[in-house]
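Support request, priority: normal
Reporter: lab tech (M.K.)
Component: structure prediction queue

Hi team, I submitted a job for 3-methyl-2-oxobutanoate hydroxymethyltransferase from Helicobacter canis NCTC 12740 yesterday, and the status page still shows it as pending. I've pasted the exact input below so you can check whether something in the sequence is tripping the parser. The sequence length should be 273 residues. Please let me know if I need to resubmit or if it's stuck on your end.
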Amino acid sequence: MSTMPNSTEGSTKKLTLKALRDKKGREKITAITAYDALFARIFDGEVDVILIGDSLNMSFGGHKDTTSLSLEHIIYHTQAVCRKAKSSFLIADMPFGTYSTRDSALKNATKLIKATQVDALKLELTSKKLHIVEALIDEGIAVMPHIGLMPQYIKAEGGYKIKGRDERESKELLESALAFEQAGAFGLLLEGIIAPCATAITQKLQIPTIGIGSGAGCDGQILVWSDMLGLFDDLNPKFVRTYLQGASIIKQAVRDYASDVRSQSFPNEQESY
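Reply from support: The job had stalled in the queue. We restarted it manually and it finished. Here are the results:
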């Protein structure tokens, strides 16, 4: 039985790993990214999962991709999120290059877990690195593999490529998903996979899938918060639904503030000591 009510709104209970897995086939999983204490506090309990994603390297760091993010950076941001998010299940990304071998994965994952107490880790990989997932799980670390379009692989693949378009690729994705489930993964993130393929994977697995750009057939959905709130427009993926024109609203508020300062209407007598 879930440790949280069907709606996470206003919840003060911590969503457990078991409760998250139990949502499969019962209730869609809601997930969003967060990178700091301010937004973690706002999002906490409103969604099931908060991901401290390496996407922060682009939307916050100004880089063109995620690959230059360091372990120290993800630890810093994960610590900030963990300080204020007490209800949602927390997952942190393992940065590019921090889990290329079994030994480096164990060393860096252990460091990240100890420094932050995050609930689980997400890794972008294929089933060729199944042994890395197995090693982390054997160490007692909850792991969510990320398959399909993997941003950490864009240099090798020459850009962002949608996956599962042909029978061979669809079969490979399904085989990878089943292998990760057998290895003990608690769930899978499916990115940029054509909807019929992602749906087929979801239906074959006993563990939940969270999709991004992979259609409605996944067990849950995740969006990068700055995309969803209209604050980051360097990229405009087809799958993003913008729920707030955040950049425009904030710019207008800043203009109003600057105007009030210049006109000397701020601060007024009530706003002064």
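Confidence is low (pLDDT under 50) at residues 1-10. The radius of gyration is 20 Å. Let us know if anything else looks off. Ticket resolved.
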